């Protein structure tokens, strides 16, 4: 069974994503801030990470950068999720080699598509090889 | 305000009766200076405090330490010309403040042109200088100088006010963005919980319950769309909406919008026809944004059409020679009243005629955003409509010409 790490500071959103992901057949770990997120990623070695961007005490980009520097998490696929419409977030996520960038609220089918993309070796791009095709 | 006829009761250049103008007379010949001072003092219509300087250097140095309302400067000075004084006072750098009237014992049109060009306020040949004409010239020069300063001050005030307004706009835009983000977070949780309940993940759900939960989910999605529109619209209004122009195929905008319209077409039982001309030139365009525009037009057209009818999405060379290409949407639905037509691109405009299906009405921002995007492309968007017959929305693009596909050059 694959494991998804849900990084989200709002506990209700985290709970909702957890229920949904378990119903899809995944094991779920949760973290509510940047520091715990990195620790959890190293400990649980998730198969993918659903990563909120804006969290107090450190945003999702900081988490992604940190994970890229650690051997054990450098290749973990990341799906960014955010309720913000700020300019440049999508580009930054791309730069960090994310697999998908989801705008909250999103449907279960968007989540499923993103996770499928995360597990598809053809879709996942190494941080050093930025691909355009993953992005529509 | 200035009498054309000499009038001893003229009070020229004085802000208030009793104001005394400070005049510096500059001439190497001391006797002449005193004569001039005499003229001025004798003028009953004005009061002057007259000072004297004997050289250009002396004059400039006194101007640095004292304030004068006006200078009367002889063109030929012992150490320089009046032009030199004018320049030294900063007129060559646009910083001159005290008006300079140049008197010339012997001068001509060239001298006149030279001093005026350098920044002097006036030029008077000595032989026509009299007490009154001098007084009038001084009055004119002082008034003009004061008006000029007034305009400068107002201009600065306006600039500062504008800068403040821009800052305030940016603050408001950020505020909307923050609010939108804050609200969409619990909205995300609510939407997902309702969807989870609807999908029977935690417990079986009877069909009637599933139906209303489905409606609840679409309400949540609609709320999210509203907030997104709100942020987009404030961004458009504060000039923060950006487009990334790239060499693009026009029919990509149509194709993208048509794809997004499929669910709505099915829901409303409306058909779509594409009329895309062949061999359309490439254009400089932000395809993503143009898809947004055509999508908006399509969705309006579909919502205002009767079930079973057809909407047309078209792209063709522009009939208006100022543009390269036009694309848009035509429907045969309820149309827009002539009274409403001028306002449809305004924010919050809602059609008063026509059906409003449940769960459909937007905030009325779509066309406002669309028109901003088109404007950023240097294009125009035009609406034509007839009540009961239908509407056509046309976007004309390519004001700089099209990019020739075969040769890769602008045509």
Describe what you observe in this structure.
The complex is a heterodimer of chains A (136) and B (411). Chain A has 136 residues and is an alpha/beta fold. Chain A contains 5 helices and 5 strands. In chain A, strand 4, helix 4 and strand 5 form a beta-alpha-beta unit. The longest helix of chain A is centred in the first third of the chain and has 13 residues, at 11-23. Chain A starts with a strand and ends in a 17-residue tail after the last helix. Helix content of chain B is 45%, strand content 17%. Chain B contains 9 helices and 12 strands. Chain B has helices at 30-42, 56-65, 82-88, 109-118, 131-198, 207-237, 250-268, 287-303, 366-376, and strands at residues 20-26, 47-53, 70-74, 100-104, 122-125, 246-248, 271-276, 283-285, 310-317, 325-331, 380-386, 390-397. In chain B, the strands form 3 sheets. A 5-stranded parallel beta sheet of chain B has the order 2-1-3-4-5, sandwiched between helices. A 5-stranded mixed beta sheet of chain B has the order 7-9-10-12-11, with helices on one face. In chain B, strands 6-8 form a two-stranded antiparallel sheet. Chain B is elongated, with a radius of gyration of 36 Å. Classes of the chains: A alpha/beta (136), B alpha/beta (411). Chains A and B meet through helix 1 of A and helix 5 and helix 6 of B.
The main sheet of chain A comes to: 5 strands, parallel
Q: What's the pLDDT, averaged over the residues of chain B? A: 86
Helix content of chain B: 40-55%
Element string of chain B (H = helix, E = strand) = EHEHEHEHEHHEHEEHEEHEE
Q: Please count the helical segments of chain A.
A: 5
* Largest beta sheet: strand ordering of chain B: 2-1-3-4-5
Estimate the global geometry of chain B from the Cα principal axes.
elongated
> Can you give the mean pLDDT of chain A?
88
Question: If you compute it from the alpha carbons, what radius of gyration of chain B comes out, rounded to the nearest whole angstrom?
Answer: 36 Å
Quickly count the helices of chain B: 9
| Oligomer status | heterodimer
| Euclidean distance between termini CA atoms of chain A | 29 Å
Low-confidence stretches of chain B: 1-14, 353-360, 407-411
> What structural class do the secondary elements of chain B suggest?
alpha/beta
The count of β-strands of chain B is 12
């Amino acid at each position: 069974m694959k494991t998804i790490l849900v990084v989200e500071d709002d506990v209700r959103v985290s709970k909702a994503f957890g229920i949904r992901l378990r119903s899809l057949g995944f094991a779920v770990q949760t973290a509510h801030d940047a520091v715990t997120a990195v620790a959890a990623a190293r400990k649980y070695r998730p198969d993918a990470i659903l990563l909120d961007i804006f969290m107090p005490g450190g945003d999702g980009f900081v988490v992604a950068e940190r994970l890229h520097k650690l051997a054990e998490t450098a290749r973990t696929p990341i799906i960014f999720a955010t309720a913000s419409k700020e300019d440049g977030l999508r580009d930054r996520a791309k730069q960090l080699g994310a697999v998908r960038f989801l705008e909250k609220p999103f449907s279960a089918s968007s989540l499923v598509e993103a996770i499928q993309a995360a597990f598809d070796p053809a879709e996942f791009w190494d941080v050093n090889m930025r691909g355009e095709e993953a992005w529509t | 305000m200035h009498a054309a006829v000499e009038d001893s009761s003229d009070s020229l250049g004085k802000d208030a009766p009793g104001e005394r103008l400070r005049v510096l007379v500059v001439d190497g010949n001391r006797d002449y200076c005193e004569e001039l001072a005499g003229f001025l003092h004798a003028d009953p219509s004005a009061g002057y405090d007259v000072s004297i300087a004997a050289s250009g250097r002396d004059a400039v140095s006194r101007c640095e330490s004292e304030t004068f309302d006006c200078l009367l400067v002889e063109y030929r000075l012992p150490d320089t010309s009046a032009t030199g004084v004018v320049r030294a006072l900063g007129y060559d750098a646009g910083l001159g403040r005290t008006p300079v009237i140049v008197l010339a014992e012997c001068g001509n049109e060239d001298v006149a042109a030279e001093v005026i060009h350098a920044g002097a306020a006036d030029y008077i040949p000595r032989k026509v200088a009299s007490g009154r004409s001098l007084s009038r010239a001084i009055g004119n020069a002082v008034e003009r100088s004061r008006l000029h300063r007034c305009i400068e001050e107002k201009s600065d005030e306006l600039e500062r006010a504008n800068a403040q307004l821009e800052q305030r706009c940016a603050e408001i835009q950020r505020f909307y963005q923050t609010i939108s983000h804050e609200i969409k977070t619990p909205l995300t949780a609510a939407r997902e919980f309702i969807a989870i309940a609807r999908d029977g993940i935690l417990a079986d759900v009877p069909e009637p319950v599933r139906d209303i939960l489905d409606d609840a989910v679409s309400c949540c999605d609609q709320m999210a769309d509203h907030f997104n529109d709100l942020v987009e619209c404030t961004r458009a209004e504060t000039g923060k909406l950006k487009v990334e122009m790239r060499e693009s195929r026009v029919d990509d905008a149509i194709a993208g919008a048509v794809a997004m319209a499929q669910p709505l077409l099915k829901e409303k039982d409306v058909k779509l026809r594409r009329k895309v001309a062949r061999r359309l030139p490439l254009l400089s365009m932000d395809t993503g944004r143009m898809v947004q525009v055509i999508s908006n037009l399509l969705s309006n057209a579909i919502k205002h059409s009767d079930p079973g009818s057809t909407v047309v999405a078209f792209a063709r060379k522009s009939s208006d020679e100022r543009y390269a290409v036009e694309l848009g949407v035509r429907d045969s639905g309820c149309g827009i009243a002539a009274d409403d037509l001028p306002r449809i691109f305004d924010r919050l405009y809602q059609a008063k005629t026509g059906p409003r299906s449940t769960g459909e009405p937007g905030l009325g921002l779509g066309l406002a955003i669309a028109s901003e995007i088109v404007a950023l492309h240097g294009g125009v968007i035009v609406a034509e409509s007839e009540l009961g017959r239908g509407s056509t929305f046309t976007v004309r693009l390519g004001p700089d010409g099209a990019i020739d596909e075969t040769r890769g050059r602008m045509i």
